[in-house]
Amino acid sequence: MTGTSTTPRFARTSSLKQDPIARNGNFTRAAQELHIAQPALSKQMSRLEQILSSSANEAHRFGEHP
Q1: What residue spans define the domains of the chain?
Q2: For helices 38-61 and 27-34, what crossing angle results, to 10°?
């Protein structure tokens, strides 16, 4: 791999936000740690879930299994 990624920039950025969520146990404290509003964090995580769900559905459609 040459250092380029086919992962959408949004997905790469949002996945970095999962660690504070896991560490803090809730979105409010995670948002405070990330210095963003809690609704913005919730919206970003919802979008990430949509991206991951679409990827999983597409892989399944082509016969790929985890």
Answers
A1: 11-59
A2: 110
pLDDT digits (tens, 9 = 90+) for 8-59: 555 555 555 568 888 888 889 999 998 999 999 999 989 888 888 877 666 6
Are the C-beta atoms of 60 and 53 separated by less than 8 Å?
A: no
Residue 8 per-residue DSSP state: -
Q: Are residues 30 and 17 in contact, defined by beta-carbon separation less than 8 angstroms? A: yes
62: Cβ–Cβ under 8 A, 6 or more apart, which residues?
none
What is the reported pTM?
Answer: 0.57
| Distance from C-alpha of 30 to C-alpha of 37, rounded to nearest angstrom | 10
